[in-house]
Amino acid sequence: MESTATAPPTTTHTSNTDNHPHHHILPETSVLVAAVITVIVVLLVAISIIIALLRRVKSRKPNNDNDNDNNNHCLFVPHSIVTFNGTKGRRLCMNGGSPCRLEPSATFKGVQVFTYKELQSATDGFTEANLVGTGGFGNVYRGMLRDGTVSAVKMVRREGKQGERAFRSEVDLLSRLHCPYLVDLLGYCADNQHRLLVFEYMANGTLHDHLHLHDSRSQMLNWGIRLRIALDCARALEFLHEHTTPSVIHRDFKSTNILLDENFRGKVSDFGLAKIGSDKLNGMISTRVLGTTGYLAPEYASTGKLTTKSDVYSYGVVLLELLTRRIPIDTSRPPGEHVLVSWALPRLTNRVAVEEMVDPNLRGQFSRKDLIQVAAIAAMCVQTEADYRPLMTDVVQSLIPLVHNLSVGSSSGSFRFSKRVSPRS
């Protein structure tokens, strides 16, 4: 009986305790649900933004060329890469896949875009009277631009994909490389099938012509001028190899690609075969063997392994040309003298032999000490083992005192260096 009588209050008490907290749980649950929903919405928005950014970054990447010779390691500003098509007008690739049409004579980072008609007018119809150079790349004409600037207009021959790649490479590199020892690119034309490059005009043509044409021009290059040209070219390669990230390998450094201005200062030209090195030591990359016989480094010619030291070897060959006035490969000479490097190398370390191998036009213009130093630089540059070749910075530092010593006094011949050292010294 007692058990039955106490049961109802117990039940009633339990019911009251259940109802009391129920009023507090509902608002807390609502807040929790709202917070969860808010977090989910924020996460969804964040994910959407991340996906959009990833798509945008992906769209900015330049299209890869399937050809192995195309460079995929270029870390220069992406929006300055130039693309061309065969339609009317010129396009400059900006921000990856969003090309922007440029009007005739418009400028982009200092490089002008010309129509074919503009350059045809500048060169008087590409007449023979304005022809200043010829080569495997095409003809070069002297031109007068509308603003009165004298220029050199190079008409690029398009022979397959290599010609188009060389044209694009030269425009892309030179529009971003600015150095007083490189020939300035003023503009280009990619109008329909026409491919033309417009450079600053170099009044004294190529170093090759002055050294190897059988006329009086070689006599104009006395010892002082040749040393100054050697220093200018060394500074150009130093800039490409050691002041550009990643390094630029010219790959076709030779006397025909060294141009001389009105003061016989040297500038390096023709970057159609240039490559961007990797971030590894010396920028080693594997590529097809392209270049000019007689200037190719042995390891590059045999394996296709290209480094900045390949350019150093080519520089050494040019330095031998400046010393001897011999071409790199000359089958008209007696046996044993066909290849300039193999003939000269054992003589470069012999004080008597090195004087005998010097260009006769230079006799009496130099001190024996200076000649021995230049010969030693050349010998180091053309070493068979790439690791034994110097950096171009070392070459520059070795040549500077020789050139400055000549600039303090006067060199023999008609050329006199100014005592005032220019910024390019």
From TrEMBL:
Entry keyword Transit peptide: no
Keywords of the record: ATP-binding, Kinase, Membrane, Nucleotide-binding, Serine/threonine-protein kinase, Transferase, Transmembrane, Transmembrane helix
Pfam family, one: Pkinase
Binding site for ATP: K154
Positions of the Protein kinase domain: 126-403
InterPro entries associated with the record: Kinase-like_dom_sf, Prot_kinase_dom, Protein_kinase_ATP_BS, Ser/Thr_kinase_AS
Transmembrane segments: 31-54
Annotated segments matching region Disordered: 1-22
Positions with biased composition (Low complexity): 1-18
Keyword tRNA-binding: no
GO MF annotation list: ATP binding; protein serine/threonine kinase activity
PANTHER family given in the database record: OS01G0750732 PROTEIN (PTHR47989), SERINE_THREONINE-PROTEIN KINASE PBL7-RELATED (PTHR47989:SF2)
Family the entry assigns: Belongs to the protein kinase superfamily.
Official protein name in the record: Protein kinase domain-containing protein
Lineage of producing organism: Eukaryota, Viridiplantae, Streptophyta, Embryophyta, Tracheophyta
